Amino acid sequence: MTRFATLLLVFMTGAPVSAFGSMARTTTIGTHRSIQSFPSAEDRLRPLGFNSRLSHSELKLSLGEVVSIPRGGAISSIASAAKNWNSSPTSFFNTSLIALAILTAAFKIFQRASVSSDKGGSAATKPKSVKELQIKFLSVFWLLRCADWLQGPYFYEVYASKVFNGVPASLALVSKLFLTGFASTALFGPSVGRALDTYGRKKGTLAFSVIYALGAASTKSPLLQVLFLGRVLSGIGTSLLFSAPESWLVGEAQKSGDDPDGSWLGETFGLVS
Question: CA 7 to CA 16: how far, in whole Å?
Fold first, then answer.
């Protein structure tokens, strides 16, 4: 029966028998026989559309490698996954991300239910102008924010791969490059805010896209001076990102007059985060 179940998995997935070893439990039986002992095993696969080119060593279960489906089915699989949630960095990350997504969804549902109960069982109807503004703003701002977040996991690897005068970039040098970007944000932040008031938030948002793209493109250069200049541009771009788009949103939200108390604006800022 165990071998029949294993063959069934082969029929359904097209994977070699050995692929199911990591998700099953090894059992011990009195007499170990391999799948090869079944008459015409490969001939049984072909009529079902399984074009097997596997070797005999891949088609058979060797001594001590007889596998079976975990008892308990899906419940056992879930329990096994929960048990091994931190067995590797990848498993830990995936489990944490799923848990965070479930928690966020549950919190959002609870929040909507609370708002509905506070307003007598029916939530207020969102004005059409507010919906259009949210779509227009969020569809662009999320892309801008993701562009900024991409620095974290990738820029370090880029800088660490550089070689200057035959010497690979050290951790201290890479740290100085990152600190240059943070210092640029602190230094140019106040002047960026004044420039936005003078030239407009929309132009500031467009300037962020250009300046930040130049900062990212600078990472292709082998010259240390260009890399430092790129970090300065990235710092200026970060200052624009955290001031220009949101200021533009506030100004646009006040023009329509459909959100006098700012409640829908608060929802938009919540969606931003």
Answer: 10
* Band (252; pLDDT cuts 50, 70, 90): confident
This prediction has a pTM of 0.57
Domain positions in the chain: 2-83, 84-124, 128-272
Structure tokens at 163: 């070689």
Q: Could you please report the per-residue DSSP string of 66-102?
A: -EEPPTTTHHHHHHHHHHTTTSSHHHHHHHHHHHHHH
Rounded CA separation 155/164 (Å): 17
φ, ψ dihedrals at 87, nearest 5°: -70, -20
Do 5 and 68 form a contact (C-beta atoms < 8 A)? yes
Helix (DSSP H) and strand (DSSP E) numbers for the chain: 12, 4
Tokens of 272: 């931003």
Query: How many other C-beta atoms lie within 10 A of the C-beta of residue 90?
Result: 8
